[in-house]
Amino acid sequence: MWCHCPVIYFILSIGSIHGVFGHQNPEANMNISQIISYWGYPDEEYNIVTEDGYILCLYRIPYGKTNNNNSARRLVVYLQHGLLASASNWISNLPNNSLGFVLADAGYDVWMGNSRGNTWSRKHVYLETDSQEFWAFSFDEMAKYDLPASIDFIVKQTGQKEIFYVGHSQGTTIAFIAFSTIPKIAERIKVFFALAPVFSVEHTKCPLIKMAYKLKSVIKAFSGNKDFLPKTSLNNFIGSKLCSSHSFNKICLHTLFRIFGYDPDNLNMSRLDVYFSHDPSGTSVQNIFHWSQLLYSTHLKAFDWGSPHLNLIHFNQTTSPWYSIANMTVPTATWSGERDLLADPEDVKILQSEIKNLIYHKTISYYNHIDFLFGLDVYHQVYYEIINIIQENL
Q: 119 burial class (0-12, 13-18, 19+ CB within 10 angstroms)?
């Protein structure tokens, strides 16, 4: 669907004439700051620089609409998105069902990160964005550089010594790595909330990762070994035009379920244009290949650079090292779905057995991978529990 430009533009012209396209949400054509402001919340935007020179965009909702005393010092909650996503995931639903807005209205200082290579973090101090050097990263670097840079900045900016961390999908992966390998970062996390946690993908049924495993040479040829599924005017059109149409929203819905799992009754169909216009937000081809390297592995390991010599340069050993969360002592709460194709229930069970300080777990029988972001009942199933656990750990 993503590659048939002539067909899509034909549909656009026909739709304009015959009224094929239905109601469009204005947020489908907004950036993150505009969405926050659109709903009447305060918005702050910061550019931070990682140790290896990547420029990341951090967004902040310092307070909600009902607690707008901006001089008050508030507890910080940091939200980290998943694979091929961005901070927009936390504000794509209506305010009463978007975690970013829900937490702000509950009285928290909300920060939302963006991993290197996505729509809002595609700059570097000296590397050109279209160079292969810029795209030579995976979630290894996100854990080693992006997360520490973001958390350090937030701690200095707010004066808070400890923060609460919420991750979804790959946002949990980089947290597991960082919190188990960088003690000074782990010490700053009061509670780690892991939504659809991913630490291994041995049992995953996600077609995207399986495709990358089988079609590595094809992906390299088409991408130039640089970026993978970036946000473009084409997918913005698909989201804001096609997915708002009654004629095509079933195709959009089928695409989501094919990748993330089936749950047709728990998605707000009127928001498909917002979801699709902001995602996918892109990542590096190397990051996708890193995930594909783990397809038949029981545990998580660093990216294999393809030769003993290159691995020696990067890791001081000829093979890529394994990650272990045995040393992670951060209090951790997890939520998982039995219909999740990426964070497969079997992999989640293995992960749970390895978390030393697991303070809470909930499995939701009908949840898929994106229900934790966009589910109609996600506030009652997940978000209010997050708030309760925060209050219990003050």
A: buried
Active site residues: 169, 340, 369
SS (H, E, C) 292-320: HHCCCCCCCECCCCCCHHHHHHHHCCCCC
Q: Is the model's pLDDT at 11 over the cut of 60?
A: no
359 by Cβ neighbours in 10 Å (0-12 / 13-18 / 19+) ranks as middle
Q: How far apart are CA 273 and CA 36, in angstroms?
A: 17
Q: How far apart are CA 75 and CA 66, in angstroms?
A: 16
Question: Residues 41, 66: contact at Cβ < 8 Å?
Answer: no
User: What's the pLDDT tens digit per position in 231-267?
Assistant: 765 565 555 555 656 655 566 655 655 555 556 788 8
Dig out the tokens for 47 from the structure.
């550019």
| Interaxial angle between packed helices 207-214 and 216-223, expressed in degrees from 0 to 180 and rounded to the nearest 10 | 90
Spatial contact of 171 and 118, defined as CB atoms under 8 Å apart: no
pLDDT for 19 equals 39
Q: How far is Cα 146 from Cα 330, in angstroms, rounded to an integer?
A: 19
What are φ and ψ of residue 360, in 5° steps?
-165, 140
